[in-house]
Structure formats: structure tokens, C-alpha cells
Amino acid sequence: MKNYAIIGASGLIGNHILNELLLQSDVHLTVIGRRSLNLNDHRIKEVVVDFSDASSLISAVKGMDAVFVSVGTTQKKVKGDDKAYRKVDHDVPVAVAEACAANSIPKLLLVSSVGADSSSSNFYLRLKGEVEDHIEKLPISYVGIFQPSLLMGNRNEFRLGEKIGQMIMPLISFLLPMHYRPIPAQSVAKSMIREAMKNKKGVCRYTYRDM
Q1: Catalytic residue at 201?
Q2: Full-model pTM
Q3: Cα-based distances in Å from 97 to 61, 113, 153, 161
Q4: What CATH class is the domain 2-210?
Q5: 128 among known catalytic residues
Q6: 34: how many CB neighbours lie within 10 A of its CB?
Q7: Residue from 85, 128, 142, 206 carrying the catalytic annotation
Q8: Over its length of 211 residues, how does the chain's per-residue pLDDT go in tens digits?
Q9: 108 near 134, Cβ under 8 Å?
Q10: Pick the catalytic residue: 124, 180, 190, 200?
Q11: Would you list the domain boundaries of the chain?
């Protein structure tokens, strides 16, 4: 049996990761979050943590074969507060990665963004780049960093800008550089799971063509 942890299971990609892994018969899943999702499946263990509490997070990921991290918020949710945004999109994945390193977890798979760059003038891309820079320095055998552009799929929440993009972008995607083409969230999830099953080492980045 394989033991996998998912952080961000309520999100678009995270939910696909959860559902795809449940199709397999040889997995035990731990869903880690700030609140319970009330998931009804005997193969799922839910663990509620405070992501700022390192000891509880270290305990939550102990014994995992791989940890999937797919977290993110929006400016609307945090009411334009960049510090609150950073707590979710930066502090949570960094804290999870550090817990993985402390536990010698062999594999960490992270959803980032195309264009992530810690020197970018764009707040979002700079934040994602800072997360990548931090995590790739940690002593984790394999780190998979997935960098999708616009995600296609149905979220539980309504995002007007994203919905407009999902309608327009497929019509013009052939004009865009390959890395920036829209991609189904399910494709990203399947790619993450596929790579988690391989015997890889080091830091690997995946963009549109890879996923």
C-alpha cells in the first residue's frame, strides 16, 4: 500500500488528485487542511492542522510516500491583502515542504505557475518563484514542480475572470507560446500522480507539453 497526503484537496487540481488516487486500489490517503471536508471514504484520513504549527504538520505527513501540494487563494478571498495572500500561497507550501524534509519524505509534488520567478515585478509570479526557490533547496529526494497556465475545469467557487478566460483562451491558444496554453486541471492532476509513481530524483519542472 502507498501512503499519500494531499494538501489543497478542496481546490480544482487537488480535488482531481483525490478522485484520481481513489481509483487505485493500493493507496491510503491523508487529506490535510485547516478544516475537515467531511469526506466519506474508509481509505481517507482527514487531519486538521494549523499550518503555522510545525510539530503538528510534521506529525501529519509522517510516513508518507509522497505529498501533493495544491493550495492557493484569490485577491477576492483575502480582500486585496497581500500579507494574507502570502500566508496561503507561500507560507503553507513552504511549511509543508519543510515538514517533508524533517520527515525524510521522498517525494513532494507542488502546483506552481508558469512564469514563476522570484525576481518578477508581478506579485503573484514573484510569490510562486519564492516558493520554488525555497523548496528546491530542501533535502527532499524528488521535488516535482508543476507550472500550468490558465486551468480549465469547474471550481466549487465562481471566478468571473477565470470563467471569461476559459471561454476565450481555447479560441486563441494556438497563437500562444506552448507554455502559456490553457490546460485541463485534470491533466495536471494525472501528470502529478504519474510522476509520483516514477523513481525520480532531484528537482523537476513540468510545463504544458510535459503535462
Answers
A1: no
A2: 0.89
A3: 10, 17, 27, 30
A4: alpha beta
A5: yes
A6: 13
A7: 128
A8: 899 999 999 999 999 999 999 999 899 999 999 999 999 888 899 999 999 999 999 999 999 999 999 998 887 888 889 999 999 999 999 999 999 999 999 999 999 999 999 999 999 999 999 999 999 999 999 999 999 998 886 655 555 455 555 556 565 555 566 677 889 999 999 999 999 999 999 999 999 999 9
A9: no
A10: 124
A11: 2-210
